[in-house]
Design brief:
There is one protein chain. By secondary structure, the protein is of the alpha/beta class. The chain has 2 domains: 154 residues, NAD(P)-binding Rossmann-like Domain (Rossmann fold); 136 residues, Rossmann fold (3-Layer(aba) Sandwich). It is 36% helix and 20% strand. The protein contains 14 helices and 18 strands. Strand 9, helix 11 and strand 10 form a beta-alpha-beta unit. Helix 6 crosses helix 14.
Length: 350
């Protein structure tokens, strides 16, 4: 069971600190953090970036410094991370900073509204605990609890304790055979398609891959030219067959929105009428809708499920509880992969 009593919210800790507040990182993530700071009257004093990105830039009227320049300017300070990273070199740099000064990585949801706070968890504690009790092994329970605590506190040590590698998932949880029919929702540029190809040793029945973003879809086509028995669909996944407004973004994070003139075809999983044995969903906050559009498939076929649960604050409890309502026989595993903040928090369900 998750303890009802958590640490101080990262936002409160930053606001109440008597130390200078230093942002680490520029770009859209920093803009979002600054917007929240402005909303809650949180001050910030300076900004730095990794040395290779510092070339006389200014950001929101402040010169972007290097970390060593910040250390020369201030005796002590609190660092607020404003961007996502997952490469080993950057993570080691974060470890170094956090060993020298207070470092927090506040959670801003990829999709949806509101902040992930202690109050949010307490309001939904029964749902969080229902999911905790569903989890099939101790590592899942530890990972789930640490992710919740990280999202509240922003303390990166909670993540460092629980990182998992992809190989663990495919060796210890998922077992592929030569008859898999695989559905990849949010196929991006084909990275996970190639992973599935590798883990099946190229022996499977069929792969169907959906990607709504046209630029990403072109990359998907290019990167899967040598993959056999694959069907590529330039569409999103939803709870009905329809047309949706779609906000394009650099990288993976294109998403459904009402504030766009771009449209995209959307399909339900059930509309494919395939005997799917494995379904992966990484669809930027549309997972709940896509699951509702896959209810018939899930109930009748009991496919293995790989469901991302970090886009919306509610995903950590809404998605597994919805799946459990479709099929009570599922076993749920939860893993956090190497990312700061807690992106790539996934349920693996068999």
């Amino acid at each position: 069971m998750i303890d009802r009593f958590f640490e101080e919210n990262s936002w409160d800790k930053i606001k109440n600190s008597d130390k200078p507040v230093i942002l680490y990182g520029m770009g859209n993530g920093a803009d979002m953090i600054i917007d929240i700071f402005n909303k809650y009257s949180i001050r910030w004093d300076d900004i730095f970036a990794s040395d290779k990105f510092v070339r006389g830039h200014s950001f929101h009227g402040k010169k972007v410094l290097k970390y060593n320049e910040i250390k020369e300017k201030y005796d002590d300070f609190i660092v607020v991370m404003t961007f996502a990273l997952h490469d080993d070199e950057s993570i080691e740099f974060v470890r170094r900073i956090s060993s020298e000064h207070t470092l927090l990585a506040p959670t801003v949801p990829v999709a949806g509204d509101g902040l992930f706070t202690r109050e949010f968890v307490e309001e939904n504690i029964d749902k969080f605990n229902k999911v905790y009790e569903l989890l099939a092994d101790e590592k899942s329970r530890k990972s789930f609890e640490n992710v919740v605590k990280f999202k509240i506190s922003g303390k990166v040590d909670y993540l460092f304790e629980i990182y998992s590698e992809d190989d663990e998932i495919y060796e210890n949880i998922f077992k592929f055979n030569e008859n898999e029919t695989i559905l990849d929702l949010g196929a991006y540029d084909g990275d996970t398609v190639r992973k599935f190809y590798e883990k099946t040793n190229g022996k499977y029945n069929k792969i169907i891959a959906l990607e709504p973003d046209k630029k990403n879809f072109l990359k998907l086509e290019k990167n899967t030219q040598d993959i056999k028995d694959i069907q590529l669909v330039n569409a999103g996944a939803w709870n009905e067959n329809t047309t949706l407004y779609f906000q394009k973004s650099a990288g993976r994070q294109s998403k459904v929105t009402e504030n766009s003139t771009q449209t995209v075809e959307a399909r339900t999983v059930d509309s494919f009428e395939e005997n799917f044995s494995f379904i992966k969903m990484d669809i930027e906050g549309s997972e709940k809708n896509a699951l509702n559009g896959a209810e018939k498939t899930i109930r009748s076929l009991h496919p293995k499920l790989y469901i991302c649960a970090y886009h919306r604050n509610e995903d950590l409890f809404e998605l597994p509880l919805l799946i459990k309502s479709f099929d009570k026989s599922y076993r749920f595993y939860f893993r956090q992969h190497k990312y700061i903040p807690a992106w790539e928090s996934n349920f693996y369900i068999i």
